[in-house]
Amino acid sequence: MSPVSSPLAAPATGDGPLVDRSLFGVYVHVPFCLTRCNYCDFVTYTGMQALRRPYAAALLAEAELAAAGLGVGAPERPTVTSVFVGGGTPTLLPPADLGAVLLRLRELLGFAPDVEVTVEANPETVDRALADGLVAAGATRVSLGAQSFDDRVLAALGRPHDAGRVGLAVAALRAAGQSAPRGLDLNLDLIFGCPEEDGDSWARSLEEAVALGPEHVSAYALTIEPATKFGRLVAAGRMAEPDEDLLADRYEQACAALAAAGYCHYEVSNWARGPCGPDRFPARASRHNRTYWRRGAYLGLGAGAHEFAPGRAGSGLRRWNLRGVPDYLAAVQEGRRPTEGHEALDRRQARFEALALRLRTVDGLDDDEARALGVDPAGAAAAELRDAGVLFPGPGVRLTERGMFVHGEATSRLAA
Questions:
Q1: Domain boundary assignment for the chain
Q2: Where are the alpha helices (DSSP H) in 110-158?
Q3: What pLDDT shows up at residue 5?
Q4: How far apart are CA 94 and CA 228, in angstroms?
Q5: Among residues 357, 298, 377, 403, which one has the least CA distance to residue 18?
Q6: What mean pLDDT is predicted for residues 33-44?
Q7: pTM for the full model?
């Protein structure tokens, strides 16, 4: 498909009620990994050591191309409120290369004074030198892929680190964060419902994660994707899919343990330090992810990266990059955005997307927002969900903690 001009240059007029123009993010994808985990369906590649430095240079070049499409220098150019460097394993790139990309983005677009800059990392790649390099590059937050603190589970998942390596990585990041101008916040990613896991194992993982004192915790149910080792095992009848009742039990364990440790459950899969409520996100919540949940605009750089611009009447345009690294490099070297495809959302699609995204978070919808999305906050569907304990009593439409686990079903019921 031929490239399209950046949708982020679209005018901001005529937005629907659930587009947050105060947020503008940049997602940077680094697809390199040491090994491919058994559950991973992301755009990732092992090896390719010879392409890592050329890839970093291509990110710089694509940033220039993207900024040109945004009309850099125009009074209405966006101010970046968050950057998320994801993967893959971004910490396989030299921190100086990451720093060069971040510096160029700051020069091209301008960062908010309190910009959040998150870098994903895997424990086996983090030592003190790497942690110092992330701070020097401008990171304010690191999301560490712990996944479990049970070595049997980590081995079953195909992770290249053991549980002890997580604590060493956290210690290195904490030491480096002492010299960071704004400190260095830490998120720990966990997965539940895994092979070799039982209730005691999951409880220990939660306990050890909390003991490390992260400002933020993400916990995701294991999902089986067809194009993965787990997907192939399930298709061959050699592995069972995670049981829904078991996943519900594990989710309840996480909710109870993290609440007891003082974390606010502010989104379906995310907890953060600090109080929160319908009108207040915790201070350590992920600003970049909130950009997604509130349908803010975001730019995507790198192989397989996606970007989104909300359009008139709450619709929007989404585009995505070529997935293959050689194809991505070739396109950028030719001086064009490496676009693979794009999709224009119509008003109906945008309304459903807005409903699904906003119901993920603790603030949910107020009555006017619900009506704007075609949901009657006093209607039969909402009343039934309240009676079932899935929604809080009105006003507004907000999922309870129990409701968060059945988020998809609740969204469909309200949208019907």
A1: 7-293, 364-416
A2: 128-137, 151-157
A3: 45
A4: 28
A5: 357
A6: 94
A7: 0.94
